[in-house]
Specification:
- It is a single chain.
- By secondary structure, this protein is an alpha/beta fold.
- It has 2 domains: 5-217, Spore Coat Polysaccharide Biosynthesis Protein SpsA, Chain A (Alpha-Beta Complex), CATH 3.90.550.10; 233-352, no CATH class.
- The chain has 14 helices and 10 strands.
- It has helices at residues 15-26, 46-56, 72-81, 100-110, 148-157, 173-178, 191-201, 233-250, 258-277, 279-284, 287-297, 303-309, 314-328, 333-352, and strands at residues 5-11, 33-40, 60-65, 86-89, 95-96, 116-118, 120-125, 130-136, 169-172, 211-217.
- The strands form 2 sheets. It has a 6-stranded mixed β-sheet, sandwiched between helices.
- α1 links the parallel β1 (5-11) and β2 (33-40).
- The radius of gyration is 21 Å and the shape is globular.
Amino acid sequence: MKPFFSIIVPCCDVEPYVRECLDSVLNQPFTDWECLIGVETSKDKTEEIVRAYAAKDSRFKVSIGPRSGSCSASRNTGIDMAAGEYVIFLDGDDTITGGSLQRLHDKIAERPGADLYPCAIQVHNDMTSKDEELRDNYPQDFNGELSGPEATIRTERSGKDVCPMLQLTVFRRQFLADNNLKCIYGLRRQDSEFSPRALYLAKRVVPLHEPFYIYRLQAASVSSSARGEGYFHGDWATIIRSLLAFHAKVSAEPGFDRCITEIWGRKWTGWMFYFWFAPENVRKIPRTRRVETLTSLFADGFADFGVLMRSLPRARRMAGWWVRAFVRHPALRGAAELFFMAYFHFANARRNAGGSR
């Protein structure tokens, strides 16, 4: 029989944490699970440790891959290997709470077959030894279910993140397979690219509000150990390029809700304007780097960007024109930076005055 849960655990250089991670799975009273551990070439004893767990318990299955600097490859391998009805993503330096698999199982059994079951995450800061926040993308009093587009709209209107961490959600495995939902190889910050696509494509989203996951903030993680200004610009270019193409595809389908374009447009152009043109980034990141990565974002042209921009407010459309000018016309790059200096000045003034975005 197939297990109820497939727990996908990417690991690389997590020797100090991986025993605690795997023990948090092994010690669950609920036993109907498999744990798919993807180990990338490590400089410590990570592989040795996870192989020892697999040798003692056949529910632990290990795959080995080359070092890529990201969780994407291991997560994709896990998705391909998964036999369970539902998929949980657990990083090798994080844990799940005691008894949480039983609680998740019982809540899912009450309303089975949804594509996504958003839960809650407790953030623990290793550097301060404190639990800092509990993240839940849905109001606690909401116990209904939504379509993916409805969930996207409700999440944004509640002031929550339409690009949540993958670990926040339990996924139906067949939903991932049917939609060929995978992470882009080598991409860091892959949640920002994967999650909005998955959320939109879901037919049924059932928020559970279950705080089952403990997310560890620690200095050596991929997200917090970056060195050098503009370190993630290549990743953000890949993320935005992929999402622009996704929007261009789904927005052409019958019944598409234009509210989705407004939500995604605010989010994705917000990333673009900030990372490439916010005054602090213009000062700190060399123009050559910003030109290089922004040019890679538009390597396939501006058509998908144009589809998004046509439905946005005039100020953002004007800002989009200056983004194009920055890429296409070297002589206008200084003027584009001046435009965005004014753009951010007025945006901050409106925000401080309590105005609209």
